[in-house]
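Hey L., structure's done. Input below.
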Amino acid sequence: MTPAARAEAAITVLDQIIAGQPAEAALIRWARGSRFAGSGDRAAVRDLVYDSLRRQRSRAARGGALTGRGLLLGMCREEGTNPATIFSGDRHAPAPLTEAELGEGRAPSGPEVMDLPDWILPLWSAALGDEAAPVAAAMRERAPLWLRANALRATPEQALEALREDGIEAEPAPDLASALRVAEGGRKVAGSRAYRDGLVELQDLSPQLACAALPRAAAVLDYCAGGGGKALALAAAGAQRVVAHDADAARMADLPARAKRAGARIEIAAPGRVRGQFDLVLTDVPCSGSGTWRRTPDAKWRLDRAALDRLTGLQARILDEAAGLVAPGGHLAYMTCSLLDEENAAQIAAFRERSGFEVVKQRRFTPLDASDGFYLALMRRR
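Output:
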C-alpha cells in the first residue's frame, strides 16, 4: 500500500471509531476485509489511527472537522506535510480536498492543546497541579514498550542477550534492573525466543515499580487478577503461594498457559470462592484508565462522568471485599492505572476512615518519572 492508500484506510477506520466503534474492533474489521494489506501496512494504518486518537482535539481543530479526513488533514498541517501528497485522488488515495476543507482549520487552543475532554480537564488539573500540562503532552505521544525479566527463568542480563539474538535491543531501567525498555525491534517481541520461553513478560515500568515496592509475603492473593501479570510478578519475586482471582473468570483464561511458560505456580480461585486470609492482598481495580490513555486513546473520548462515578463505586466495594481477606497485620495493596484523585487518594481516604487500615505508603507514577500513569496505596491491617 502507498502512504496515501494507508491514509485512506485510516480515514475509514477513524470514521467508524468516531461513530462509536471501539478502536481495536474497527482495526480488526478493516484488517479482515483487507487481505491485500501486509503486516507493515496494518502496522502503519494502526499507527495513523492511534496517533490521531491521541491528538484528536488538536488535529480536529487544525483540520477543521472531527472526521477521519479532518484528523488526517490536521496531521498534515501539524507535521508540515503538503496535504496534496495524501489527498491526491489517485488510485486508493483520499479524494482531493474541497475548497471548504482548504479554508477550514485553525490552531488549537485551551483544552484542545492538551487533547483532553472538557469535563476531564478540571479533574486532571486538580490531581496533577503543575504537572497537568506536561503529563498531558506526554500522553499525546506513543507509549514505550517495557518488559519484565522473569527471575524464575533468567537474569536480566540473560534476558537481554536472548532478546538481542532475535534483533531486539533493550536496556534496563536505572532504578529497577528487571525492567527492560525496548529501544528497537518491539514488533518482534511476541515471536522471540525470550518471550516464547518465558524469560520476559510484557509489563509496563510503572506497575513493575509498584510491585517491587510491595512487602515480601508468603501467601498472596491477586484479587482482581485479569490476565495475571502482577500475580506472575509476585511469584517471580519469591512469594510461596500466589492465588489469582477475578470476578470475571474469562479474564484469567490465558493465565495457566502464561504461568507454565513463566515457570510460576499460580492457584486459580473461582469468582467469589476465595477462602482464608492472606499476608498480602492486591487489588488492581477497574478504573478509568486515564494513566494509559496513550495506549488506549479512544477510551478517553468514551469516558463520561456517569461512568467514572460507577467505577468509583465499584472500587469502594472491591476494597471492602478485599479487606476481609487480609490477615491481621497483613497488607492490602490498592492499584489503579488512573491519574485522577477520585479513584486514588480520595478513594483511599474514604476507605481508611471506614476500615481502620493504616496507610503505609502512597505513590503516583506518571510518564514524567516512570511510564504509564499508575497509583499505589499500601495499607496495613491493624
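The two ends are 63 Å apart (CA to CA). The longest helix spans residues 305-323.

-- N.
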